[in-house]
Amino acid sequence: MAGAYDDRDGFIWMDGVLVPWRSAQVHLLTHALHYASSVFEGERAYGGRIFRSRDHSERLKRSANLIDFDIPFSVEQIEAAKAEVMAANGLSDAYVRAVAWRGAGEDMGVASRRNPVRMAIAAWEWGAYYGDAKLKGAKLDISKWKRPSPETAPSQAKAAGLYMICTMSKHAAEAKGCSDAMMFDYRGYVAEATGANIFFVKDGEVHTPLPDCFLNGLTRQTVIGMLEDRQIKVHERHIEPGELEGFQQCWLTGTAAEVTPVGQIGSYNFEVGALAREISEGYEKLVRA
């Protein structure tokens, strides 16, 4: 499947039924378009099986609750819908996007309790998120935008509005020839990339930012488990910017990114070393097991 995302063959699940891809539309006055009242999940299927599918569905429901709405479908119904979408489009290895939002209704202002909550699921073939970076190591810019305090936004929700500064940061990074950008948090600690969590290696031990103001990714959790199974010490902690020069390896984790080694962040360089490769290869085996 190729071409613009609004002009493709296939089917998208919307509000309980499959509709032709090009007919999956919403009204201009949809609340989410104006006020970001939307949550989503990005998932990958390998060999017809979505990795940690139920965890994604449960998080989608939690994210909606965190931004003050309820999805009118159960986890079981969401799971069945994802399988239906995969089958209808003849997909085995695919990216799956589930999204729920406040639609158009009687309210058209900040408040929207009278508007219906809608949901859709689409799936398509999608290759490596960072191209050949798994071999060479991704090149990251350092964003001028910071992840906000959890007192200003529901940081554990996978909510559309939280990604605005990520889009801006990634655009700025791409303009400099980078794949992505690393972001600091509101206190100045290392946080994450625009759509992926980050890990560092120093003297055989792994360090990763404490997810107290950004999403604790499912891939992040999986990789921490892999490291612990290998008896590798993992430090989840606040990381100061000045520590970057002392780390030897770095990688990103996320459903789209999977496990991608990093070769450079700003002026700091990292080896695409043995541990980064081992975890990347181990993750690929795990998701296909």
Question: Which terms summarize this structure?
Answer:
2 domains, alpha+beta, 9-stranded mixed beta sheet, 289 residues, D-amino Acid Aminotransferase, Chain A, domain 1, single chain, 15 strands, D-amino Acid Aminotransferase, Chain A, domain 2, 6-stranded antiparallel beta sheet
Give a quick summary of the entry:
By secondary structure, the protein is of the alpha+beta class. It has helices at about 30-35, 55-65, 75-90, 135, 165-175, 220-230, 275-285, and strands spanning about 10-15, 15-20, 40-45, 50, 95-100, 115-125, 140-145, 180-185, 190-195, 195-200, 205-210, 235, 250-255, 260-265, 270.
Discrete helix count: 7
CATH architecture descriptor name of the largest domain = Alpha-Beta Barrel
Helix content: 25-40%
CATH class of the largest domain: Alpha Beta
Distance between the termini: 26 Å
Give a short account of the largest sheet. Answer: 9 strands, mixed
Portion in strands? 25-35%
Name the overall outline. globular
CATH structural fold name of the largest domain? D-amino Acid Aminotransferase, Chain A, domain 2
Total individual domains: 2
The SSE string, one letter per element, is EEHEEHHEEHEHEEEEHEEEEH
Indicate the mean pLDDT.
Answer: 96
> What is the H level of CATH, i.e. the homologous superfamily of the largest domain?
D-amino Acid Aminotransferase, subunit A, domain 2
Find the count of extended strands (DSSP E, 2+ residues). Answer: 15
Rg, nearest Å: 19 Å
| Helix vs. strand class | alpha+beta
Low-pLDDT residue spans:
none
